[in-house]
Amino acid sequence: MVPTSKAERKAALDVASWMFNVVTSVGIIMVNKALMATYGFSFATTLTGLHFATTTVITVVLRWLGYVQPSHLPVPELLKFAFFANLSIVGMNVSLMWNSVGFYQIAKLCMIPVSCFLEVLFDKVRYSRDTKLSIVVVLLGVAVCTVTDVSVNAKGLIAAVIAVWSTALQQYYVHFLQRKYSLGSFNLLGHTAPAQAASLLLLGPFIDYLLTTKKVYAFDYNVISVFFITLSCLIAIGTNLSQFICIGRFTAVSFQVLGHMKTILVLFLGFFLFGREGLNLQVVLGMILAVAGMIWYGNASSKPGGKERRTPTDKSHKNRSLSDSEQLDEKV
Predict the structure, then answer these.
(1) How many CB atoms within 10 Å of residue 268?
(2) Of 73, 177, 199, 223, which shows the fewest CB atoms inside 10 Å?
(3) In a 10 Å sphere around its CB, with 0-12 CB exposed, 13-18 middle and 19+ buried, how is residue 312 labelled?
(4) CB neighbours of 79 closer than 8 A, spacing ≥ 6?
């Protein structure tokens, strides 16, 4: 059945955008896991640079074909975004290397309150009591599912703080730039992907060497590893685009809350496909709690006063700008 009303059409596009993000994100996790764990390609920063290089090529082709219209993004804004985005990538890699898996998961959970703080500080967003409580329930549920051992050291803590704040700033900035300059997801990606590709491909091999003591140029490339690298780059196009689409439509906080649904789905699919090892009452209860919190968040944040700007003019401006960017995404 084709959606008829504007609200139904928006809801359908929201669901499609989110499913696009889930499929590409889970897909790239599985491919990268095979690439790194099975074939030993442990150069995560360089691989991310290749992802953005591939994305750059696609955006150039689409612009040449006329699917993406020319747009403007000031160079200072582009440089700030690239700085936060690259710092996020490096910070996450270092945090995972220097911290236990438990503390790494705790740090990732902290992105939601940090994103909330940024929205309250810069966008004057007000959250209702139910919205705040639903976020707490989501955090508790995901923590119960994923957090096991928690150990921390000084350098690991510094890396985690940098990773959390830079990632939250990068995701907030995606929404901010789309709103301020009325940019569609492909337009913004067309501006940012080349800068990230160039910087990460330039610095990536050095950063990866510091993290792994291995040289990317000395890796034993064969047909299978090159196939998985290529497949990872192709899936990354969808992952990068879907992230920009989702943040543009949902805001950074909602994207983080919905993002934990992917964590639950990955756990569930892992148990379903690879056996019930590790599946216990604690994990099941955590899943139920997290899903309940996400449903609650969706209902609470969509109600009047659940999540709103304090200045009506800003809100109307946001809706107008987002409407422009959504139209551009739909055309693409």
Answers:
(1) 16
(2) 223
(3) exposed
(4) 195
Q: Tell me the backbone φ, ψ of residue 310, rounded to 5 degrees.
A: -80, -20
The whole-model pTM stands at 0.78
The rounded distance, in Å, linking the Cα atoms of 226 and 302 is 45
Give the H/E segment covering residue 35: none
DSSP element (H, E) containing 288: helix 281-302
The amino acid at 250: F
Closest residue by Cα to residue 211 from 40, 94, 39: 94
Residue 198: which residues within 8 A CB-CB, separation 6 or more?
A: none
CB neighbourhood size of 80 (10 A)? 15
pLDDT tens digits for 268-295? 666 665 555 556 677 778 878 887 887 7
Q: For residue 30, give the amino acid letter.
A: M
Mean pLDDT check: name the lowest of 2-6, 214-218, 236-240.
Answer: 2-6
Q: Which whole-number Å values give the CA distances from 118 to 71, 112, 129, 135, 195, in the listed order?
A: 27, 10, 18, 15, 24
Residues 150-181 have pLDDT tens digits of: 677 788 889 889 999 999 999 899 889 988 99
**Segment (H or E) for 147:** none
